[in-house]
Amino acid sequence: MAISELPNSRTEEDGSAVLRVLSYNVRSMRDDEDALARVIRACDPDLVFVQEAPRFFRWRKHAARLAAKSELVMLSGGATAAGPMLLCSLRATVERTEDVLLPLTPGLHRRGLATAVVRFAGARVGLVSCHLSLRKDERYAQAGLVLDRVAALGTPYTLVAGDLNEQPDGPAFRRLAKELQDGWEVSPWGGAYTSTPADPHQRIDAILATPGVEFLGCGVPDDLDPADLRAATDHLPVLAAVRVPAAT
Questions:
Q1: d(CA 7, CA 55)
Q2: Are 50 and 27 in contact (CB under 8 A)?
Q3: I need a surface site. Which of 26, 150, 155, 248 has the fewest CB within 10 A?
Q4: Burial class (CB in 10 A: 0-12, 13-18, 19+), 47
Q5: Which helix (H) or strand (E) holds 176?
Q6: 248 has a pLDDT exceeding 80
Q7: Which 8-state DSSP code applies to residue 55?
């Protein structure tokens, strides 16, 4: 499905906000970052939930460069969240941010969460970008910690997005989807599979939301440049349009 078929960002008369939300594993920007930025710009997002942001030498410089090339600004995360990061458009008013490190299992990669609370006109929304473990038991526990963080944000509505490293029938994915809406299941649009660009065959990336957020479409856009998608990273992006009600 064409990106132009998704609703554009706007503020409704009742104060609710229609947002374009993107989730994208960028593999530490080790590939073609110009192609990566072109993909992000083509999706015209208000919010980008990044996984595998740069974490090492001069990581802030690399992350800021991606934000600038994508015509966005850094919101939170990066190395301080062990990889997850949030970008946003200037349309967002930032209320607060927090980077959260999850418990470390010896011998495994450190995981974390990039979180924020932002406002779009009258709509107030929490954000959590995550990248769950490759190991099944740790991944399941981390899904519970994501839900705990959603509750701790104290926002009327929250968006959670990331690389779950698991398909929808897995226990961690099911744990999240029991409490949160799975955008693809609620309002499928475009393609389902997010890995890999050369051979899409599994849905391991997702955009989810608390009850009350309305999904207007969610999936992998069909009209992005295939060459850019293959050059940018080893995942496909997930794009959603959502309506967030005005805060009461």
A1: 34
A2: no
A3: 248
A4: buried
A5: helix 171-179
A6: no
A7: -
